[in-house]
Amino acid sequence: MGIRFAHMADTHLGAFRDPVLRGLNLEAFLRALDTLREEGCEFLVIAGDMFDTSLPEMDVVERAADGLRRLGEAGIRTYVLYGSHDRSLSEKGIVDVLEAAGLFTNVGVLDLDGEGAMPPVTVDEPTGAVLAAVGGRQLTLERALFEAADWSPLAKAVAEAPLAIFGYHGPVEGMLPEELVRMEALDRGHLPHGFHYYALGHVHHHSIEVVHQGGVAVYPSPTFGATFTDLADGRDKGLVIVDVDDEGNCDPRHVPITMAPTEVIDLDVAGRTAQEGAEDLARMIDAVEPEDAIVLLRVHGTLSYGKPSDITIQKARSDLEGRGATSVFINRRGLRRPQAIDMEGSQLSLIH
């Protein structure tokens, strides 16, 4: 008969200071919940960083909780593991609160103590699927945990299951996009054997790899994104729907979630004066169609002359918003004032 379930991760609810982007992020999550309900999924796995912090704003929590409550009322179970953002080091976080309210089951552990210790196994009773997971920890401390763990008892515990899912929130070697290949990652050989599906989180892009003896490891991508880079990378955002046959073979497919088109303005002012940079920016703004779009404006590089404030970025924001932009997200952290060489050969900032 088979099983169908959904896999999400890195929704980062509550991310963004801009209220429009924060609202779109939440709406993308709720749209994803509607999608998996329409798809007839039997349960949902959220592989970490459901929230951007352990104590997000209550209006975000309330709407997310309502969406999860409606999912449960439709008979769809939700299983969650902690990510590196939504866990608290010193007190109970919102994931603990929502689990206590009965909205989902937390299947992940953060530490494995004692010889032969293994994560607890959770059974999705209607399907017989079993889940075990290790949540995200700061500074990739989970790598040592995996290297020291004895996974053989866990493999025996899931051997007879029609579907065995292992959740992990962290980077896995060989599954990173080009811009993250230098990130310290877990050797995929350290993932426990015997699972049909590895529900991964933490890496903000969609990828699929076969591991061990036919297990499928998947990063689903965020449903919206949590940073300027997420929104500007051009990659599809969404969730993964997984069909499982009677032999436990998993067939994942990515279902995109699109909230608004994006327009990217990338201005490199290296070697340009502030006036030239301002003129370049004005031309680039004139060339985009901002109506109903998220406009991502990045200004970077070291000026040859003038002050960064002479590039009137706020004026650019007003112009784009006046032409109907849904939101204007500005990144100017890489914009630098000119440098001069003093008599000793060291660099000094020029202030004009």
Explain how this protein is built.
This protein has 352 residues and is α/β, with parallel strands linked by helices. Helix content is 24%, strand content 27%. The protein has eight helices and 19 strands. The strands form four sheets. Strands 5, 6, 7, 8, 9, 10 and 11 form a seven-stranded mixed beta sheet that branches. A six-stranded mixed beta sheet has the order 4-3-2-1-12-13. Strands 14, 15, 16 and 17 form a four-stranded parallel beta sheet that branches. The longest helix has 20 residues. The termini are far apart. The mean pLDDT is 90.
Q: In whole angstroms, how far apart are the ends?
A: 73 Å
Rg estimate, integer Å? 23 Å
Number of strands: 19
Mean pLDDT: 90
> Which regions have little confidence, pLDDT < 50, spanning 5+ residues?
none
Instruction: Return the structural class.
Output: alpha/beta
The helix content, as a percent range, equals 10-25%
What would you call the shape? elongated
Element-level helix/strand string = EHEHEHEEEEHHEEEEHEEEHEHEEEE
Q: Count of DSSP helices?
A: 8
Sheet with most strands: 7 strands, mixed
Strand content: 25-35%
What are the defining features of this structure?
alpha/beta, 8 helices, 7-stranded mixed beta sheet, 6-stranded mixed beta sheet, 352 residues
Summarize the structure.
The protein has 352 residues and is an alpha/beta fold.
